[in-house]
User: Fold this.
Amino acid sequence: MGTFGIDLGTTYCCISTLDRNGNPEIIKNQADNTDTLASVVFFENENNIVVGEAAKERMETDGDRVVDCIKRQIGKPDAKTYTYFGKSYNPTDISSLILKRIKQMAEEQGYSVEDVVITCPAYFGFEELEETRKAGMLAGMNVLSVIAEPTAAALSYCARQFQEERTVMVYDLGGGTFDVTILKMSTDTNAEGREVQKVKVLTTGGDDLLGGKDWDDRLVEYVTNACCSENGISPEEMDSETHQVIRSRVEAAKKKLTNLEETSVKVNVNNSMTKVRITREEFENLTADLVQKTMSYVEKTLQDAGNVQIDTVLLVGGSSFMPMIRNAVEQRFPGIVQFEDPNHAVAKGAAVYSTILVEAVRAEAVSSGDPAAEDSAGAMSVLNPIEVVDRTPRSFGPGVLDENNEYIIDNLIKINEEMPVEETRSYYAPKDNMASVDLRAFENMSCSDRVTPCMDMEGNEQYCDPADKVKCIGTLHIDLPAGTKKGTEFKVTFRVENREIYIEAINVSTGEPFSTKIQIGADVDVENSVVNQVAIRADTEE
Assistant:
């Protein structure tokens, strides 16, 4: 049966598993004769949904029924809903169609795809992570974990050429997202006295809305303006089909500029064939600020890591093929940059991680004397043990009243803390005879102790700093006994592990515990959550 790693990319996907020698291998897309599957969905009719290159080819003629770059929308509050032939699809549904196709693609070649690890940008928040996991489940997979793409790439490198005490930076520029992560590779000894390789994330930076698509958009604008100028029309006067033709041909032109100094794009505009010449120099000038934006994230991440000495830089992601990217990174880190199998490293690392997870479960079962696990012991130890130590992608905390009676987020857990992490703090009932409390949980990108929430205590939306990316991700309902006194203490614990969040609150006066594992779509009822409930206070004073 085996375990699998899936790189669910913005523009292309990839699936990998381990061979009998423990080496990750890519499962080919035989239908398209490639190693990848285009992350594009075409709704041909109510009975036929096409995924992959065939769907991508329909963008020029049937763009209104084609969905691409859906990864940029998954888990986002402003995500679009698509309706085709009377049925609605959200980004999670469409992602599941892509995953279902890549599962089918592997199974057509004799594999049985059940246990998988799916990758995501390191900067994905909780909702994006959970919706990615949900997409895999909808596709009929047992999702063991969702791992950050740079961490997966580092695992691929580690499994192939582990070097003790090495600090690695992963520069991962994909089709729609950018991550830069600094990791420490080391060797440790576990409780059984066995040598264990450790990959520890030191810090992460990046932008889940920056990727190769942005380079495409610049070229699309350049070609569109050139076509309009030559034909005496405005971009608004150009029909939608021509816009789609330009976009599809620009991607091919961008790839050609990887090896060529010059290429051209031909477009039929109002029955007039227009040829637009593009040089690599012009393309690099058009997108120089995007390159600089990625390098700014690199510098910020280095600073966050304490300006550690980098031993190796791994270039990952299909967009890292662009010469301007290689040149910028090599100029900053001369002599230590490696091209790390850009299109495949993330999927291969995810396959390594899925095997690590399954083998860890088997090893635990063997140690407990499980006969079934004993029988499968021969399948174990395909890999040297590798321990992954990840960091929190966001800050997390409850919504409470501060000393000024203002509703705030008290960040118990900060972004980039080593997982698993747990923090407990005491809060207090603000008045007598409260019937219950709904404790809201928030995530955000701030490193501050206290943050303005995206809603007030009554659940109404309010302004908060957009840079903080504040979201309410769930609530914990706490029933209180009759006669609860003002100042009653509650111990609230937030715990984050494996990119999952657990919350517990204990009424100290009664010892009664309340707990929840935050799940998207559950426990969140903003409109009704404050009926007869009041936020608890950060201190005992009025």
The chain has twelve helices and 28 strands.
